[in-house]
Amino acid sequence: MFSGEATERRLGIVGAGKAGTAFARAAVAAGYDVAISGSGPSDRIELIVEVLAPGARALTTDEVVAYAGVIVLAIPMHRFRQLRRDLFAGKILVDAMNYWDEIDGVDGPFATAPAGTSMLVQEWFPSARVVKSLNHLGYFKFEKSRRPRGTPGRIGMAAAGNDRSAVAAVLELIDILGFDAVDAGNLESGLALQPGGPIFGAGHSAKELSSLLSREAALLPAN
Amino acid sequence: MSNAQDIEFGLDSFVPISVDASGRELSGDVVIRNTVEEAVLADAVGVDSFNIAEHYRKEMMDSAASIILATVAGRTKRIRLGTAVTVLSTQDPVRVYTEFATLDAVSNGRAQLIAGRGSLIESFPLFGFDLNDYEDLFEEKLDLLVRMLRDQPVTWSGKFRSPLTNQYLSPPLPKGHLPVWVGVGGNPQSVVRAARYGLPLMLAVIGGPPIRFLPLIELYKRALDKFGKPLQRIGMHSHGLVARTDQEAADIQWPHWAHVFENAAAERGWARPTMDRFQAEVDEGSLYLGSVETVATKIAWVIRLLGLSRFDLAYATGRVPHEQKMATIELYGREVIPRVRELLSDPAEEPAPRDQSPASANARSSSV
Predict the structure, then answer these.
(1) Range list of H helices, chain B
(2) How close, in Å, is residue B259 to chain A by CA atoms?
(3) Which residue in B has a C-alpha nearest to residue A198's C-alpha?
(4) Options 3.30.70.2190, 1.25.10.10, 3.30.420.40, 3.20.20.30; which CATH number does B8-367 get?
(5) Tens digit of pLDDT for each residue in A104-116?
(6) What is the ipTM of this complex?
(7) Where are the domains of chain B?
């Protein structure tokens, strides 16, 4: 464990399941002020947050969105379309979700999504600045692998998005959370970070990650 | 943790299609009859419970657990008979009640249930349920099931089935019969829900180090306290296989484990299986695999680590042949369980509170 610099930093997390609470723990440990929501009223997750992510505050989803400029979306993929389409207007939205047909149901658009599932997230939330990241390590590996910058063997974490200043902000978040940040390019390149790709779940270094990303990019049809 | 003699040691089966000695897949009906023999053997060698899962998949024959369990009931006297888990979300709780209350009657009080949301969702389209109701379905159905078990007649209404008014269900259950556990895979809301109903908690730990479940156990205890419920039992389900030596166990399980994960890699985009990952699961993860001493030491370690009062071994992963499953059951019942009880009764074996590794427990026991 280590702390980030002392400047005030805020992070919002939508989703208080395994992944959301793991992100909250990591962000609190890294010095962020963290607000987190589940579905429904905040008192439903108060105890969960108190025990699993002490130091984070339990709020409603609307309150979380109002609280921070960077919001991590960590709910089951099949649930995001239950959220209002203008909910994240102007916010940096870190899409940490993955599509699993055995959890999310066989969903044609998700299953095929030729440009990646984050493009569908961006379509649903047109005014959000969507960045795909934090999705490609399991929550346990994510927590276990966090290291201060400069630690030999530090793992890489990629971020993909079309809004370049949003990507820059997420790259900084990644570094503070404890990973070497890798710019994966535009949002479509996030396809390479999905389950089934060579990056998902592996825990590569930043260097390996970059070379895998360029190899994957070469395989994408030109557009 | 309960007294070592009171801990329940179970076996869990998905009734998986297995292969014969020549590697040929057996047909489903043969697999089901083999599973009955496995349960009968489990009873004979002193296993406390035999529990069947619920899936609707071509490689698993566990779509109607109560029928298999009733057959086992007729051939056994002692072993408890249950599910691991009943996917309550897509079942009618009234039907679950009538089937398992009847199982309880024919088995003379030996029926038990683990109710869960299910980690796989193939039952939703099959029975016409909407995955968007995933949470609400489980909540409502657990509520109805618990009411039928605790207080009849039942007057109840909900969103997903017709209301009940002063309804008695037959057969009636003697007080305390048909214990229901809530099965969870790590979702914190599910843990809190189990506590809210004051039901015992069953953790499915199917990979990775079990220590990551410690915070959830803390959450469960805190939630029980918050809801004013007495402390409940906590159990765990993990995969494994027992043979004469560590090497023999690995040789038997590895090709079938690899086969399961090769398929998962192809179908679901999981990482492909490697011998390193397999060995890591054996050494510090959630495979209870090896000789009697290796498996007993690891089970005793995890029972102490998490404060468990029930341990279910999902015996043999994938298409492991029936004969090798029978050998595992024999060793688990006759040797592993007594050895675990012995290890847990020995105060000299009490590990340091922050002991996180089964390997260190192993080192200690071999030095005694």
Answers:
(1) 28-44, 65-75, 93-106, 123-127, 134-150, 188-196, 214-226, 246-268, 275-283, 292-306, 322-331, 337-345, 358-367
(2) 17
(3) B271
(4) 3.20.20.30
(5) 766 677 777 888 9
(6) 0.86
(7) 8-367
